[in-house]
Design a protein that fits this description.
single chain, alpha/beta, Rossmann fold, ProC C-terminal domain-like fold, 11 helices, 51% helix, 13% strand
Length: 268
């Protein structure tokens, strides 16, 4: 029997997950998307996906139900969902800052829930998703959710819900930090005389290559840094300036600031 996956919300992340699953061989008929915004719904339907404007009894055989709406409308979405949601279904929420206690209450006491924090590289199959499951989720439910996000990249399961805020701070927000650094490198390249297009290519290439190298070698990142740094050389000069400017400390503190904000959002 094929599993049916319902997405409540058909935005970018839902589309990324669906695309990843389709590339793995899943069928369009395996999905149902609930999307109230007509232009988005029409675009999804044009791809062959079954779409509805609101939740109805057709979700009654769903094995997975992915809450992919914006956090501010999630409560209303859950109110519509819980009257049709089968008890055996596993609910997956990718809404930042919405705790399991609230989700359980809004879903009428539904117990099988997983909080997920994916990031935007999921759109190109290189995402990292943090996951935390309620005790009601057994091995079968966890494996289903793990397979869902395996379609868009790597996964890390946390031992506590609080660690989802930490995942948010490191990888959920992490692409923003990387783009900030890349933009600065791009600007530096432009100031050295490169065109805008070539400056972008150089900055992106440096990050792409370094990331692939780090992924292929398990040595500490500091050792990889040492391997490209010759005493008195160009990299040495650049890194010495960054240390004097406190760049590393600023980045580390930025991660802590992001976690603090995630906790504030979770607390309402």
């Amino acid at each position: 029997m094929r599993e049916k996956i319902v997405f409540v919300g058909g935005g970018n992340m839902a589309s990324a997950i669906i695309d990843g699953l389709l590339k793995q061989g899943r069928d369009l008929a395996d999905f149902l998307v609930i999307e109230p915004y007509a232009p988005t719904r029409d675009a999804l339907a044009a791809r062959g996906l079954t779409c509805r404007a609101s939740v109805g009894p057709e979700i009654g055989d769903a094995t997975l139900c992915v809450l992919a709406t914006k956090p501010q409308v999630l409560r209303e979405a859950c109110a519509q969902l819980h009257q049709y949601l089968p008890a055996a279904s596993t609910v997956v929420s990718i809404a930042a800052g919405v705790e399991l206690a609230s989700l359980t209450q809004w879903l009428g006491g539904h117990a099988r829930i997983v909080r997920a924090m994916p990031n935007t590289p999921a759109k190109v199959g290189l995402g990292m998703t943090g996951l935390y499951a309620t005790p009601a989720c057994g091995a079968v439910e966890r494996n289903r959710v793990d397979a869902l996000f395996a379609a868009v990249g790597d996964r890390i399961w946390t031992d506590s819900e609080a660690m989802i805020d930490a995942v948010t701070a490191v990888t959920g927000s992490g692409p923003g930090y990387v783009f900030h650094f890349m933009a600065a490198m791009e600007q530096g390249a432009r100031e050295l005389g490169f065109s805008a297009a070539d400056a972008r290519r150089l900055a992106v290439s440096a990050f792409r290559g370094a990331a692939e190298l780090a992924a292929s070698d398990a040595v500490p990142l500091t050792e990889l840094q040492d391997r490209v740094t010759s005493k008195g050389g160009t990299t040495y000069a650049a890194l010495s300036h960054m240390r004097e400017a406190g760049v590393a400390d600023a980045i580390t503190q930025a991660v802590h600031k992001a976690q603090q904000r995630a906790r504030e959002l979770s607390a309402g």
